[in-house]
Specification:
Blueprint: H1 8-70, H2 76-105, H3 110-127
Helix pairs in contact: 1-2
């Protein structure tokens, strides 16, 4: 009866070698997955940028259409002024709302800071 006995050192060596190969393979797989996702995100961002550009031009033509339509009721210069003032009012309202939202979002996370302080104190107490 032939038996193949390996020493514990040899087994640990093989385990270490196989673990290293497995870890390397997992890292390579993760790199490939991240690269594929990054490519998809890049394509999506480019498409979104193109949509934003065409949306901008569509909005500009709608503004011009509004001016031309209003010019049938009032003088063309007045139609342009009315539409411009309406756009400025919208811009100011959006800017004020955005500023308020930024201020609300700029506060520090008080509960998280308090919890981290409690955790640090607990760890310090545990080490004493």
């Amino acid at each position: 009866m032939a038996t193949d006995h390996q020493s514990i050192g040899e087994l640990i060596g093989r385990l270490s070698e196989q673990g290293a190969r497995l870890l390397h393979a997992e890292i390579e797989l993760a790199k490939a997955e991240v690269a594929a996702r990054a490519k998809a995100v890049g394509i999506g961002a480019a498409m979104f940028g193109g949509a934003a550009l065409f949306g901008f031009f569509a909005f500009a033509t709608l503004i011009a259409t509004a001016i031309m339509g209003l010019a049938n009721a009032v003088a063309p210069w007045l139609a342009g002024l009315i539409v411009s003032l309406a756009l400025l009012a919208l811009t100011a309202a959006l800017a004020l709302i955005g500023r308020a939202q930024l201020k609300a979002g700029a506060t520090k996370p008080d509960r998280t800071v308090a919890n981290v302080k409690k955790d640090v104190d607990a760890v310090k107490e545990g080490l004493s």
